[in-house]
Each structure stands twice: as structure tokens, then as C-alpha cells.
Amino acid sequence: MPVRERMKPSLGAVRVLEPDPILDPIAEARKRLIVALDVPDLAAAIELVNRLQQVCSWFKVGMELFTAAGPRVIELLAARGHSVFLDLKFCDIPNTVAGAVRSASALGVRMLTVHTLGGPAMLEAAQGALSGVPHPPQLLAVTLLTSMDQAQCRAVGLLRAPGAQVELLARLGLAAGIRGFVCSALEVAALRALTGSAGVLVVPGIRPAGAHAGDQKRVAAPADALRNGASYLVVGRPITQAPDPAETAVTILAAMAAGL
Ligand code: C5P
Q: Which CATH architecture best describes the domain 26-259?
């Protein structure tokens, strides 16, 4: 693996070797690809992870799998050295969400989601719940689901264009002290401008050329999402429902590398 020597400020004169994103873009892409384990139970999750673990390092556990398998799936992924993103999109009264954020943090996940539509007080409570947590996960505020287009937004009374709505919701998150957001590739450049380099921007709705959009509405190809400023890409069905998930993941990593 091509590496570069880097002086890590916190380590003084200690030299660390890490993959060079220019010399080894595939290694860099691996660090930014999150596979959504949207499967019905623990057995299906294990089977998929067994097929993908040589290629992928991040896995997202969402409401389907967590509802079926509970914290056990997170323990299992962590024991194998994988990074876990718990995507339960908490959206409830502030006190309840703060408790849920504390509970999720105790599971050892590296990222977790709340939904911005819970409002400013809830977002503040979620961020506040992490103060005092020793190694806090990255809190991500979901802006607008990538499955929502203008018509879906209007139906629930959100009359702004999706781009403007996403920006409004991200500003609420920022005001609450949150620095991580989930948005589509269509809004990620605007959010990158808003958050600067400190922002952690996670983009689902990724569809490689020729892949079915399915229920997703605001979609983009992997390289475009990265070029627009995404920190991480979330890919579910294009990988998990492929005849050979590992082979498809490798193809997606190559596409991502082209966008780095
Ligand atoms: O299968 P697909 O690639 O569409 O999966 C996308 C994943 O990202 C799903 O697990 C979905 O829950 C999640 N997600 C999303 N849109 C958001 C937030 C999360 O699609 N705004």
C-alpha cells in the first residue's frame, strides 16, 4: 500500500505512516464508504458482512436490523474491528432523544443520527447529551430524507425547494452545536460551504451508473458526491442486493477513487 510519512502534531516528533489519498485513493475510498446493512435479521447481517469484510470497513445499522437484532449486532461488528454507524434517526421530545443518544453512545458506535425535524430544542438536547461522554460518537443530523422530492415535501407542508429546506435545517443543527449532517449529493456542496472543512457530511442516495434509484429521489453517482464535498457515502441496495456484493463494492470504491 502506498504510504506517506506525516508528522502528527499531537505526537511531536513521532512519525506515523498512513495511506496517501493521492497515491492510494482506493484505501482512502475505503475509509469513506459505509455499507447500509438493511437486512431483516442477525444471520443475514453476518452473511453479508462475511462477504464484504475484506473490502469494506464501515457498516450502517438502521432501524430494520436494529429492531430485529438489537445491540448484539453492534457488538459483533465492533468485535470484528469494523466502524459502526447507528442510523435510527431519533426524533422525539428533547428528554427522550437525549436519553437515546446516551444509550446509543454507550454501545460504542462511531456515528449516530437524530432528525432535524425534531426541532431546535431537541437538537440542542441531543448535542448536550454527548458532553461528558468519554469518546463521543459523531452526531449527525438528518436534514431531508433522500427519498423526498418537492412533491413529498409539499405533502407534509414543507413548501421550500429541497435545497433551501436542507439548508434551513442544517442551520438549525449548526446553531445547536452539531457539526455532522446527512444530506443528498445535490445539497452537499452548499452544506460544505456552510460547515467548512470541520463538517462531517454523510451522503446516502448513491447510485452508480445504471443502478436503480428505487425509492430514492435525490440521487447521484459516487464520484460526483465526493467531488461535491461529501465526507462519507452510504450505499445500501446497489451493494447488498448485487449478485456479488464484494465485487460491486470494489467497483464502487474505484468509482469513488476517481472522485477524490
Ligand atoms: O439502499 P440505499 O442505498 O437506498 O440505502 C440508503 C440508506 O441510507 C438506507 O439505509 C436509508 O435508511 C439511509 N438514509 C437515506 N436517506 C437519508 C438518511 C439515511 O437513504 N436522508
A: Alpha-Beta Barrel (3.20)
